[in-house]
Amino acid sequence: MGERDAGEWRDRQRQAVRAHADADARRRAAEHAEAAELVAWFVAEATRRGLRTTRLVARGYDGRGRYRTGLTGWYVDRAETRAVDVAGRFHLLTVPGGLRARLFGVDPQPSPAPLVVGAGGRDGESIPLRMLLTRLLGDGTAGPGSTTTPAAPRG
Fold it and tell me: Which pLDDT score, from 0 to 100, does residue 118 have?
């Protein structure tokens, strides 16, 4: 392979890598938009039903400490490490912790909601966000099996 051929090959490789990265970014943006729509639907439906909110608490990365937040909303998983606040933002409720966090609380920033919660985790357990949110509504004040619930938006 000559220098010219090698240079052309490198250019094609760079273009291919850029094209893959762009496609991945578009896919992630579409997934985040769909998940945001699901979260907005959930908040509207939970509010309409009068589903009780709770003060959200964050946990330390090591799982030992519990830290106050200024957030109110609904936990979406049993471990109480993921939640949706009343403003319709998704939060991961794991924080570095420490003495300052214990004294003053923490302010976990919202993050994009995943379409599949737990995907890529070490335990191999994952569940679609749609299923988690509809389960929460099923456990709410309208009771499971309510037929008056508008369907979750389809993606």
Answer: 79
Integer angstrom CA distances of residue 101 from 7, 98, 135: 53, 5, 32
Q: Are 83 and 75 in contact (CB under 8 A)?
A: yes
Q: What is the pLDDT of residues 13-59, one digit of tens each?
A: 999 999 999 999 999 999 999 999 999 999 999 999 999 999 999 99
| φ/ψ (deg, to 5) at 117 | -80, 130
In DSSP terms, 94 is beta-bridged to 59
| The token pair that represents 84 in the structure block | 């949706």
Q: Helix, strand, or coil here: 57?
A: strand
SS3 73: strand
Confidence of residue 123 (pLDDT cuts 50, 70, 90): low
What's the Cα-to-Cα distance from 138 to each of 3, 26, 43, rounded to whole Å?
Answer: 65, 33, 14
